[in-house]
Amino acid sequence: MKQLILGLLLLAASTAQAQQAISQRGDTTVINTTSLTQNVRGYRGPTPLNIFVHKNKIVRIEALRNRETPKHFQMVRQQLLGAWDGMTVKKALKAEVDGVTGATLSSNAVKANVKAGLQQLKKK
Hints:
By secondary structure, the chain is an alpha+beta fold. It has helices at 2-20, 70-79, 89-94, 104-123, and strands spanning 22-25, 28-32, 49-54, 57-63. A four-stranded antiparallel beta sheet has the order 1-2-3-4. Strand 1 (22-25) and strand 2 form a beta hairpin.
């Protein structure tokens, strides 16, 4: 019985975190992947993002505070974060975006964050 109650509490906490990950700024939906992707790691740790969606299209993606190597993560910012701009959520979920050479782990973590964030939005 204790395990069942603990399981239900964990499920409720997880659901609450996921719901808090999505907010509105005017008519733009903002998905914060911090609580959605705690186990997704780049080279030196988590790489959380804010994903901005307006009228079912990605407006922009911004990196949040992380511990990635600044030189390498700057390449990710410049070459990868804009790859989804203008895509619909459906198209972005199917897109096979290339990573950044020299920043493979960071790139893979960013792509996983985008996917997790958009999947959460789709569930809402």
